[in-house]
Design a protein that fits this description.
Order of helices and strands of chain A: EEEEEEEEEEEE
Largest sheet of chain A: 6 strands, mixed
Order of helices and strands of chain B: EEEEEEEEEEE
Structural class of chain B: mainly beta
Number of helices of chain A: 0
Radius of gyration of chain B: 14 Å
Distance between the termini of chain A: 41 Å
Number of helices of chain B: 0
Radius of gyration of chain A: 14 Å
Oligomer: heterodimer
Helix content of chain B: under 10%
Number of strands of chain B: 11
Shape of chain A: globular
Chain lengths: 116, 115
Protein backbone atom coordinates (compact mmCIF):
# COMPACT_ATOMS: atom_id res chain seq x y z
CA UNK A 1 0.00 0.00 0.00
CA UNK A 2 1.14 3.49 -0.72
CA UNK A 3 1.64 6.04 2.04
CA UNK A 4 3.14 9.46 2.57
CA UNK A 5 4.77 11.00 5.62
CA UNK A 6 5.30 14.69 6.11
CA UNK A 7 7.45 14.88 9.25
CA UNK A 8 6.96 18.59 9.89
CA UNK A 9 3.53 19.64 11.07
CA UNK A 10 4.32 23.34 11.20
CA UNK A 11 7.20 25.46 9.87
CA UNK A 12 7.77 29.16 10.45
CA UNK A 13 10.05 30.99 8.07
CA UNK A 14 11.01 34.64 7.58
CA UNK A 15 10.02 36.38 4.41
CA UNK A 16 12.88 36.17 1.95
CA UNK A 17 14.38 33.10 3.58
CA UNK A 18 14.53 29.69 1.95
CA UNK A 19 11.98 26.99 2.60
CA UNK A 20 12.21 23.22 2.47
CA UNK A 21 9.33 20.88 3.20
CA UNK A 22 10.01 17.20 3.69
CA UNK A 23 8.07 14.34 2.19
CA UNK A 24 8.81 10.63 2.48
CA UNK A 25 6.80 8.03 0.66
CA UNK A 26 6.29 4.31 0.76
CA UNK A 27 5.43 2.67 -2.51
CA UNK A 28 6.14 -0.68 -4.11
CA UNK A 29 6.50 0.47 -7.70
CA UNK A 30 7.55 3.54 -9.62
CA UNK A 31 5.96 6.41 -7.73
CA UNK A 32 4.08 9.31 -9.11
CA UNK A 33 4.54 12.22 -6.73
CA UNK A 34 2.73 15.49 -6.29
CA UNK A 35 2.85 18.60 -4.15
CA UNK A 36 -0.33 20.57 -3.57
CA UNK A 37 -0.89 23.86 -1.74
CA UNK A 38 -4.03 24.90 0.10
CA UNK A 39 -4.74 28.46 1.13
CA UNK A 40 -7.22 29.02 3.98
CA UNK A 41 -10.77 28.23 2.94
CA UNK A 42 -9.70 27.02 -0.49
CA UNK A 43 -9.27 23.76 -2.32
CA UNK A 44 -5.93 22.19 -3.21
CA UNK A 45 -3.86 23.59 -6.05
CA UNK A 46 -1.22 21.51 -7.81
CA UNK A 47 2.27 22.99 -7.42
CA UNK A 48 4.26 20.36 -9.29
CA UNK A 49 4.44 16.68 -10.12
CA UNK A 50 7.01 14.00 -10.80
CA UNK A 51 6.34 11.11 -13.14
CA UNK A 52 9.75 10.17 -14.56
CA UNK A 53 12.91 11.64 -16.03
CA UNK A 54 14.73 14.55 -14.48
CA UNK A 55 14.60 14.16 -10.72
CA UNK A 56 14.48 17.92 -10.15
CA UNK A 57 11.10 19.27 -11.16
CA UNK A 58 10.02 22.86 -11.41
CA UNK A 59 6.57 24.02 -10.45
CA UNK A 60 4.49 27.12 -10.21
CA UNK A 61 5.11 30.04 -7.87
CA UNK A 62 8.87 29.46 -7.86
CA UNK A 63 8.74 26.03 -6.18
CA UNK A 64 10.84 23.03 -7.07
CA UNK A 65 11.10 19.49 -5.73
CA UNK A 66 13.71 16.80 -5.96
CA UNK A 67 12.95 13.10 -6.20
CA UNK A 68 15.49 10.91 -4.42
CA UNK A 69 14.72 7.24 -4.89
CA UNK A 70 17.44 6.08 -2.49
CA UNK A 71 15.87 8.12 0.30
CA UNK A 72 12.24 7.65 -0.77
CA UNK A 73 11.89 11.39 -0.55
CA UNK A 74 10.34 14.19 -2.58
CA UNK A 75 11.20 17.41 -0.75
CA UNK A 76 9.76 20.74 -1.80
CA UNK A 77 11.92 23.87 -1.87
CA UNK A 78 11.67 27.55 -2.55
CA UNK A 79 14.76 29.81 -2.46
CA UNK A 80 13.00 32.95 -1.22
CA UNK A 81 9.64 32.84 0.49
CA UNK A 82 6.97 35.50 0.02
CA UNK A 83 4.27 36.31 2.55
CA UNK A 84 1.71 34.87 0.14
CA UNK A 85 3.32 31.43 0.50
CA UNK A 86 1.76 31.05 3.92
CA UNK A 87 -0.51 28.04 3.44
CA UNK A 88 -0.78 24.32 4.01
CA UNK A 89 1.25 22.04 1.78
CA UNK A 90 0.40 18.44 0.95
CA UNK A 91 2.57 15.76 -0.58
CA UNK A 92 0.80 12.92 -2.41
CA UNK A 93 1.79 9.64 -4.05
CA UNK A 94 0.13 7.48 -6.67
CA UNK A 95 -1.31 6.06 -8.85
CA UNK A 96 0.20 2.79 -9.97
CA UNK A 97 0.70 2.71 -13.70
CA UNK A 98 0.22 -1.04 -13.86
CA UNK A 99 -3.28 -1.01 -12.56
CA UNK A 100 -6.45 0.95 -12.71
CA UNK A 101 -5.80 2.22 -9.22
CA UNK A 102 -5.67 5.96 -9.66
CA UNK A 103 -6.19 7.05 -6.10
CA UNK A 104 -3.80 9.48 -4.47
CA UNK A 105 -2.54 9.04 -0.92
CA UNK A 106 -1.94 12.33 0.84
CA UNK A 107 0.31 13.24 3.71
CA UNK A 108 -1.10 15.00 6.76
CA UNK A 109 0.19 18.34 5.53
CA UNK A 110 2.69 20.97 6.67
CA UNK A 111 1.47 24.39 7.68
CA UNK A 112 3.82 27.20 6.68
CA UNK A 113 3.77 30.51 8.51
CA UNK A 114 5.70 33.42 7.05
CA UNK A 115 6.85 36.15 9.40
CA UNK A 116 7.77 39.63 8.25
CA UNK B 1 -9.95 29.09 -11.95
CA UNK B 2 -9.42 25.41 -11.28
CA UNK B 3 -12.17 24.18 -13.56
CA UNK B 4 -13.92 22.45 -10.67
CA UNK B 5 -16.74 24.28 -8.94
CA UNK B 6 -18.61 23.38 -5.77
CA UNK B 7 -21.83 24.68 -4.30
CA UNK B 8 -22.68 25.74 -1.75
CA UNK B 9 -19.42 27.03 -0.32
CA UNK B 10 -20.80 27.01 3.20
CA UNK B 11 -23.60 24.94 4.69
CA UNK B 12 -25.02 24.77 8.18
CA UNK B 13 -27.51 22.02 8.86
CA UNK B 14 -29.23 20.31 11.72
CA UNK B 15 -28.90 16.61 12.34
CA UNK B 16 -32.36 15.91 10.95
CA UNK B 17 -31.95 17.91 7.75
CA UNK B 18 -31.41 16.60 4.24
CA UNK B 19 -29.11 18.55 1.97
CA UNK B 20 -26.95 17.98 -1.08
CA UNK B 21 -23.53 19.16 -2.14
CA UNK B 22 -22.89 19.73 -5.81
CA UNK B 23 -19.69 19.50 -7.80
CA UNK B 24 -19.18 20.31 -11.46
CA UNK B 25 -16.03 19.89 -13.50
CA UNK B 26 -15.39 21.71 -16.76
CA UNK B 27 -12.19 19.87 -17.69
CA UNK B 28 -13.52 16.92 -19.68
CA UNK B 29 -12.27 14.45 -17.09
CA UNK B 30 -13.64 10.96 -16.63
CA UNK B 31 -13.13 10.44 -12.90
CA UNK B 32 -14.48 12.36 -9.95
CA UNK B 33 -13.81 12.12 -6.21
CA UNK B 34 -15.24 13.19 -2.87
CA UNK B 35 -12.84 13.86 -0.01
CA UNK B 36 -13.44 14.82 3.60
CA UNK B 37 -10.96 17.16 5.24
CA UNK B 38 -11.15 17.47 9.00
CA UNK B 39 -8.89 19.64 11.11
CA UNK B 40 -5.46 18.13 11.73
CA UNK B 41 -6.26 14.95 9.81
CA UNK B 42 -5.08 13.71 6.42
CA UNK B 43 -7.46 13.98 3.53
CA UNK B 44 -9.93 11.11 3.62
CA UNK B 45 -11.03 9.69 0.30
CA UNK B 46 -14.75 8.96 0.46
CA UNK B 47 -15.91 8.00 -3.02
CA UNK B 48 -14.47 7.61 -6.50
CA UNK B 49 -16.47 7.57 -9.69
CA UNK B 50 -14.93 6.52 -12.98
CA UNK B 51 -16.98 6.85 -16.14
CA UNK B 52 -19.99 7.52 -13.93
CA UNK B 53 -19.64 4.23 -12.06
CA UNK B 54 -18.74 4.14 -8.41
CA UNK B 55 -15.45 2.31 -8.09
CA UNK B 56 -14.55 3.16 -4.54
CA UNK B 57 -16.43 3.51 -1.30
CA UNK B 58 -14.12 3.76 1.66
CA UNK B 59 -16.47 2.47 4.35
CA UNK B 60 -18.37 5.71 4.38
CA UNK B 61 -21.52 5.73 6.55
CA UNK B 62 -24.77 5.40 4.65
CA UNK B 63 -25.84 8.88 5.75
CA UNK B 64 -23.59 10.02 2.90
CA UNK B 65 -24.96 9.07 -0.51
CA UNK B 66 -23.10 10.01 -3.71
CA UNK B 67 -24.62 10.40 -7.14
CA UNK B 68 -22.90 10.86 -10.47
CA UNK B 69 -25.52 11.50 -13.19
CA UNK B 70 -22.89 12.25 -15.85
CA UNK B 71 -19.16 12.73 -16.19
CA UNK B 72 -19.34 16.42 -15.34
CA UNK B 73 -21.48 16.37 -12.23
CA UNK B 74 -21.13 14.79 -8.83
CA UNK B 75 -23.44 15.12 -5.86
CA UNK B 76 -23.16 14.17 -2.22
CA UNK B 77 -26.53 13.74 -0.56
CA UNK B 78 -26.54 14.20 3.19
CA UNK B 79 -29.11 13.06 5.72
CA UNK B 80 -29.23 12.61 9.50
CA UNK B 81 -25.64 13.74 9.88
CA UNK B 82 -23.72 13.88 13.14
CA UNK B 83 -21.71 16.80 14.54
CA UNK B 84 -18.48 14.88 13.83
CA UNK B 85 -19.36 15.09 10.13
CA UNK B 86 -18.56 18.80 10.23
CA UNK B 87 -15.63 19.28 7.87
CA UNK B 88 -14.52 20.68 4.54
CA UNK B 89 -15.79 18.47 1.72
CA UNK B 90 -13.64 18.60 -1.37
CA UNK B 91 -14.47 17.44 -4.84
CA UNK B 92 -11.79 16.58 -7.36
CA UNK B 93 -11.59 15.32 -10.91
CA UNK B 94 -8.95 13.67 -13.05
CA UNK B 95 -8.46 11.97 -16.36
CA UNK B 96 -8.01 8.42 -15.16
CA UNK B 97 -6.03 6.05 -17.35
CA UNK B 98 -4.11 2.80 -17.01
CA UNK B 99 -0.87 4.64 -17.71
CA UNK B 100 -1.30 6.41 -14.42
CA UNK B 101 0.08 9.73 -13.37
CA UNK B 102 -3.17 11.59 -13.57
CA UNK B 103 -3.16 14.55 -11.25
CA UNK B 104 -6.34 15.54 -9.54
CA UNK B 105 -7.87 18.98 -9.78
CA UNK B 106 -9.74 20.20 -6.75
CA UNK B 107 -12.71 22.44 -6.20
CA UNK B 108 -12.77 25.08 -3.45
CA UNK B 109 -14.73 22.86 -1.09
CA UNK B 110 -17.92 23.11 0.90
CA UNK B 111 -17.51 23.98 4.57
CA UNK B 112 -20.16 21.92 6.35
CA UNK B 113 -21.24 22.53 9.92
CA UNK B 114 -23.64 20.10 11.57
CA UNK B 115 -25.41 21.43 14.64
Amino acid sequence: AQSVTQPDIHITVSEGASLELRCNYSYGATPYLFWYVQSPGQGLQLLLKYFSGDTLVQGIKGFEAEFKRSQSSFNLRKPSVHWSDAAEYFCAVGPNRRSNDYKLSFGAGTTVTVRA
Amino acid sequence: ETGVTQTPRHLVMGMTNKKSLKCEQHLGHNAMYWYKQSAKKPLELMFVYSLEERVENNSVPSRFSPECPNSSHLFLHLHTLQPEDSALYLCASSQASTSGGNEQFFGPGTRLTVL
